[in-house]
Write a structure and sequence with these properties.
Elements (H helix, E strand, L loop, with lengths): L1 E13 H5 L4 H4 L10 E13 L2 E5 L9 H5 L9 H7 L9 E3 L5 H4 L3 E4 L2 E4 L5 E4 L1 H8 L11 H9 L3 E3 L8 E5 L6 E8 L2 E5 L22 H18 L2 E3 L8 E7 L2 E8 L5
Parallel strand pairs: 3-4, 4-7, 7-8, 11-12
Antiparallel strand pairs: 1-2, 2-3, 5-6, 9-10, 10-11, 12-13, 13-14
């Protein structure tokens, strides 16, 4: 197995929304905000090369929404999904499996594109993986999350016949299901070079979110997120999991450790250092 980091660029979100009840005077130490209270976040995907399969985990925000939509998110950086794939020697047609941790627009928007005025899959040779519970949650969204579930990102997967639901061991990794952020978000736990590499999605957006109360305002069930984070991070500390960070603008990976104050950051490093 080989793992490749696929950088798709950066965007900005409100710092207060990203840290919930934690005061700015505290969270800005790890995630400094600009004059508009916006912090920079990565959209860092993971490519898994395993046998004759090429599995992409998440795919960023894409480019098909209108200028008004993108004006809220201040996309920046030199990376793109296509550019990063090609830099690793692959094309979109090489991807066999498109695994989506969840269907919020910054995680799945890059999987569908416009060709003329028609929507088509970017990875037209791939199965697109979700799970049945999350699919129902995303396609019949509650008012609080409705803006994050964009039908143009989601419905073409099913309409094309490429949608698959995870049911058993169809993929070469274990999955931790978390429902605090959104219903049945999937966290892959990948065995790699003697390590367990966990793609953290929105269970742990950045190293700044490691303390338990640092929970996003976007989470639909924040108290459940607290429970899930505590359980997962305790296990990660005890078993020295490598936590691959999708949204941390600076750090690709980290480990955590137990301290008198609870679970805290141990060290940060790049995936290539493994």
């Amino acid at each position: 197995m080989k793992l490749h980091v696929i950088n798709t660029g950066f965007f900005k979100l409100d710092g207060g929304a990203m840290f919930g009840v934690v005061p700015k005077s505290i969270w800005q130490k790890s995630n400094p905000a600009d004059e508009n209270n916006l912090c920079t976040w990565a959209m860092r995907c993971l490519l898994i090369e395993e046998g004759n399969r090429l599995i992409l985990v998440d795919n960023g925000i894409g480019n098909k929404q209108d200028a008004k939509f993108f004006s809220h998110y201040y996309l920046h950086g030199d990376d793109s999904l296509s550019k990063s794939l090609h830099s690793k020697g692959f094309s979109e047609q090489d991807v066999t499996d498109m695994f989506l941790t969840h269907l919020h627009f910054d995680h799945c928007g890059g999987g569908v594109q416009y060709k003329g005025d028609q929507l088509e899959l970017v990875f037209n040779n791939a199965h697109y993986w979700s799970n049945q519970d999350h699919w129902q949650w995303a396609t019949k969204p509650n008012p609080r999350e409705k803006a994050s579930f964009i039908k143009e990102n989601i419905l073409p997967m099913q309409e094309s016949g490429h949608l698959k639901f995870v049911q058993g061991n169809e993929l070469p990794f274990d999955i931790f299901y978390a429902s605090g952020h959104t219903d049945k978000m999937m966290i892959p736990k990948i065995q790699y070079k003697g390590y367990t590499v966990c793609y953290m999605a929105d269970l742990l957006p950045s190293t700044g979110h490691i303390p338990l109360p640092y929970v996003m305002g976007y989470d639909t069930r924040p108290l459940l997120t607290l429970e899930e984070k505590e359980r997962f991070l305790n296990e990660a500390a005890d078993k020295q999991y490598v936590l691959f960070l999708e949204h941390d603008a600076v750090n690709e990976c980290c480990t955590v450790k137990r301290t008198e104050k609870g679970i805290r950051l141990d060290r940060t490093f790049s995936l290539a250092e493994l």
